[in-house]
Structures are given as structure tokens and as C-alpha cells.
Amino acid sequence: MELTTSNFTTFEKEYNFVKEEVVEKKEEKPPVQPKRAEKITYKVQKKDTVQSIAKKFGVKPETIMINNQTAMDNKLKVGEVLTFPSIDGLYYKLQKNEMLAKVAKKYGVKVVDIVDYNNINPKKLKAGTTLFLKGVTLKKYKEVEQRLIAAQQAKEEQKKEKAQKGKKGGGAAPPPDTTGGGDDGGTAASYSGEGFAFPVRYAGITSPFGNRYHPVLKRYILHTGVDLVAKYVPLRASKAGVVTFAGNMSGYGKIIIIRHENGYETRYAHLSVISTNVGEHVNQGDLIGKTGNSGRTTGAHLHFEIRHNGVPKNPMKYLQ
Q1: Angle at the Cα of 144 from the Cα atoms of 138 and 148, rounded to 5 degrees
Q2: What letter would DSSP give residue 309?
Q3: 202 with 230: CB under 8 angstroms?
Q4: I want to staple 291 with a disulfide (CB 3.0 to 4.6 A). Which of 86, 146, 205, 302 is the partner?
Q5: Is residue 185 situated within a structural domain?
Q6: CATH number of the domain where residue 254 is located
Q7: What is the span of the domain harbouring residue 249?
Q8: Is residue 237 a part of any domain in this protein?
Q9: Domain boundary among 98, 116, 140
Q10: Phi-psi region of 53 (alpha: psi -120 to 50; beta: other; left: phi over 0)
């Protein structure tokens, strides 16, 4: 087009219109989707450390620690399998009747971030759903764990006080039912909150606590727990606490470790099914898995341990 005084105004209007149209199209960019966390499964090699593994996968050491209890305790074993996200943060298992707002507040994250990073519909969440919580630090994880243990301790103290008042107010209370309900998932003992309860229906002991000749290793070593007769039966938490490990561990096979008040922890090994997750709070009697034959064993049973400040104790002195 040849520009003249008469047509310049018309050209200018058309040019500005086209210019505005181009600008509008440039502004119509799709929203940036957050990077998804991928679940990393890693088998510990010789000379591995938490720091070296973290560097290898581009995450912080504390991310490996808060997702794996042995890493938290700096007790990595060759052959042990670690699981952690590819982005710094925590895998968290949603509990019954728990809302995202509560989870977000507890760990100091935003609800919108939980929704975006997990690509979920908040209205369709179910108990047991594993969520990725981006940015959860070791400090925050420990704060939450301590609050959970303190809250449970207060709850159990209230139960004890209530039980004592009941004894003062009348006749003797009936003895607790420790017969259990069989292998259909019934309770294994009377879960009153007093001490430790049998994690399975009691059917006998195949190997007691103490020094013994190991049937697989063929040498005398300390048996750090008791082997209970329990062939592929429902497993329940012996006492309320926080799950600090749920996965595979050398020798133990599939194992769950629960941390309790006053420096105690329980271990449930050689499982076939794990139905809980690290960071989850469990009550005494909650279903947490199923016994089995995983790890170093000669047959299906439950290897059960009670430890105090890291030292193995004879479980039968606490269960009876």
C-alpha cells in the first residue's frame, strides 16, 4: 500500500488493530504445570551414605531421612531398599476422616500445592491415599512426630486415670479378653491402652528371646525378639505410636517399626503385607499388615520385638 495523507489514518487504525490482536495471542499462554515427584526405589550399595545417595539423585539428605527410618538413624545396610521422592518432600498416607487442610497445617504446606503436585480431586480422596508433600523439612517432620507422640501419651494417661477412678467406684473389673477372635481380623487382645498387647492372636512361640542357634545363619547369636506362631494372619499395632519404618530391611524382610512414648519401639518382621506408611499415627489394635515369610526365615511366622532406647527387651515380660 502506498501511504498518502488521505489513507494514513486508516492504515494506522488497521496496524494498531493487528498489533493488539498479536499481543492478545501472546498473552494466551497455558498455565505452567508443577513438576511431578517420581517415586525412587534404591537398593543400598557398599560404601553408600545418606549424603552420597542424596547427591546421586539430586535431593537433600533430609528428604531420604524423613522417608526412611534407617536413614534417619544413620544405620543403612547393604541391600536395604530405600524409597523417596525425586523432589524434596515427604510421602504421607492420608488417615481416616482427615482433611487436606489439616494435613497442610500440620506440615506447613499449602492445600493448593498438595492438590497440584498430586493431581487430585480433594472431594474424592480416601483414607490410605499416599500424598506427596513438597518442601517438608526434617525439622518440621520431627516437630509433627513429637506432637503426635505427646498427644497420644496424654490420651493414654486420661484412660489410665479413668480406669483408676472406675476401680475406686465399684467392684473388681472383669478380666480382659486375651483370646482374640481368630484369623478373621478380630482383635488379638484387650486394647485398653495399658502396656503392650499381643499383635496377633496368641497361638504359641516357636523361638524365644535370647541367645540361640540361628537356623539359617548356623551360628549362635542374640535373638532380639520372639517368634510367634502366626501363619499369614492379620497383624495389629501392639501399642499406639507413630510408624517410623515400613518396607524391606535386610534379614527382616518386610518390616514395620512403630515408635512409642518413653523411648519404646516395636518391630514386626517377615510380613507378607504392609498396610501402613511412614509418618502415620496408629492406635493400639489398628490393623497394620499381615504376617508372612519374607526375609531370612525358614517359614511363615511373626518376629516381634520391643526395644527401649534402642536396646532389645524380652517382649514376653511386657505382654504378660
Answers
A1: 145
A2: T
A3: no
A4: 302
A5: no
A6: 2.70.70.10
A7: 205-319
A8: yes
A9: 140
A10: alpha
Q: How confident is the model at residue 222 (pLDDT cuts 50, 70, 90)?
A: confident
Q: Which SS3 state, helix, strand or coil, does residue 8 take?
A: helix
Q: 234 and 128, same structural domain?
A: no
CA distance 97 to 38: 27
Whether 212 and 313 map to the same domain: the answer is: yes
265 within a domain of the structure (yes/no):
yes
Instruction: Say if 74 falls within a structural domain.
Output: yes
**140, 171, 190 — which closes off a domain?**
140
Phi, psi of 139, rounded to the nearest 5 degrees: -60, -50
Q: What one-letter code names the amino acid at 152?
A: Q
The 10s digit of each residue's pLDDT in 225-279 is 999 999 999 999 999 999 999 999 888 899 999 999 888 999 999 999 999 998 8
The closest alpha carbon to 179, from 200, 160, 165, 196, belongs to 200
Query: In this model, does residue 153 exceed pLDDT 70?
Result: no
Q: What is the pTM of this model?
A: 0.49
Distance between CA atoms of residues 196 and 11, nearest Å: 88
What's the longest Cα–Cα distance across the chain? 112
**Given the DSSP bridges, would you call strands 311-313 and 234-236 parallel, antiparallel or unpaired?**
unpaired
The DSSP element (H or E) to which 118 belongs, if any, is: helix 111-118
The rounded distance, in Å, linking the Cα atoms of 107 and 259 is 19
Residue 216 sits in the same domain as residue 295: yes
